[in-house]
């Protein structure tokens, strides 16, 4: 069984048990879970956390489906704003073992990547068709102060890094300095070439700034105008280390 699927139902129940509201975006047999954790104060602000686009990247979904481990990370945030989590975008990939072929974990049955065509009028995954209008609805209803997207990069095994979009320089520096203080610097990727970085620039060696593509993160940052941080945990290392990288990214957000 896919390890994320094995934790999905119990993880969502765990969030309900601590007072979160769990709902589903549904269409044509697909249902994408959404977890809403209200602030302890009256607030129109929202932090959006998303993961599970590519299901060989297990650290993000497994962190977000663990209410006991995740709740302490957002406790201070909830004193200022609401938190909304999409723990698993890709529902098709849940049917396949996470150690199997990328063909089934990153793409749908028509060969479309789950992190492409966001905000564009072209063929896209059904889950993207479902979630995209919901994001616009949330953007109209709340002041989404930041988006955090949790990934791993299998092309850079053992190394973690960031993509930072639509974030002013002083806040970028705070994010990067904070992350450096929280993780082993040996696992931080040191990029030298911008090849493959989709027009992004390199900052401090381990951050790609303002890349342009058709990703979810480009949609939230460039189209919706929301500051967005992508945490790329070090693929191939143990789960605890990968989840710790995401925790460090979350605690480094300048909220």
What does this structure look like?
It is a single chain. This protein has 255 residues and is an alpha/beta fold. The chain has one domain (3-251): 3-Layer(aba) Sandwich (Aminopeptidase), CATH 3.40.630. It has 8 helices and 9 strands. It has helices spanning 3-17, 59-64, 67-74, 102-105, 126-141, 169-182, 216-223, 239-251, and strands at residues 21-27, 30-37, 45-51, 82-86, 143-152, 161-165, 201-203, 207-209, 228-233. The protein has a 9-stranded mixed β-sheet with strand order 1-2-4-3-5-9-6-8-7, sandwiched between helices. Helix 6 (169-182) runs antiparallel to helix 8. The protein is globular, with a radius of gyration of 17 Å. It starts with a helix and ends with a helix. The model has no long low-confidence stretch (mean pLDDT 97). This is Peptidase M14 carboxypeptidase A domain-containing protein.
Mean pLDDT across every amino acid position: 97
Total domain units:
1
Distance between the termini: 37 Å
Secondary-structure arrangement, i.e. CATH architecture: 3-Layer(aba) Sandwich
Largest β sheet strand count, sense and barrel closure: 9 strands, mixed
What share of the residues does DSSP label as strand, in percent? 15-25%
CATH evolutionary superfamily: Zn peptidases
The radius of gyration computed from the alpha-carbon positions, rounded to a whole number of angstroms, is 17 Å
Q: What's the overall geometry? A: globular
Tally of helical runs? 8
The CATH C-level class name: Alpha Beta
Q: What name does CATH use for the topology?
A: Aminopeptidase
Q: Which residues sit in consecutive blocks of at least 5 with pLDDT less than 50?
A: none
Helix content: 25-40%
SSE ordering = HEEEHHEHHEEHEEHEH
Number of strands: 9
Strand order of the largest sheet: 1-2-4-3-5-9-6-8-7
Secondary-structure class: alpha/beta
Protein name: Peptidase M14 carboxypeptidase A domain-containing protein
């Amino acid at each position: 069984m896919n390890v994320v699927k094995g934790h999905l139902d119990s993880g969502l129940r765990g969030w309900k048990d601590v007072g979160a509201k769990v709902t589903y975006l549904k269409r044509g047999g697909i249902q994408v879970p959404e977890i809403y954790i209200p602030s302890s104060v009256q607030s129109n602000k929202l932090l959006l956390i998303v993961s599970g686009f590519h299901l060989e990247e297990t650290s993000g979904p497994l962190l977000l489906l663990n209410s006991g481990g995740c709740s302490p990370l957002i406790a201070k945030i909830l004193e200022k704003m609401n938190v909304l989590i999409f723990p698993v975008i890709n529902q098709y990939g849940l049917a396949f073992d996470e150690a199997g072929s990328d063909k089934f974990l990153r793409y749908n049955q028509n060969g479309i990547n789950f992190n492409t065509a966001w905000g564009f009028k072209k063929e896209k995954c059904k889950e993207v068709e479902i979630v995209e209008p919901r994001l616009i609805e949330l953007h109209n209803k709340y002041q989404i102060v930041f988006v955090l997207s949790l990934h791993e990069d299998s092309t850079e095994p053992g190394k973690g890094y960031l993509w930072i979009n639509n974030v002013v320089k002083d806040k970028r520096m705070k994010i990067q300095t904070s992350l450096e203080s929280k993780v082993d610097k040996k696992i931080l990727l040191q990029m030298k070439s911008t090849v493959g970085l989709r027009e992004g620039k390199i900052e401090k060696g381990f951050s790609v700034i303002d890349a342009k593509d058709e990703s979810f993160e480009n949609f939230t940052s460039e189209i919706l105008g929301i500051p967005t941080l992508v945490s790329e945990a070090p693929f191939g290392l143990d789960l605890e280390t990968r989840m710790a990288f995401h925790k460090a990214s979350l605690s480094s957000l300048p909220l």
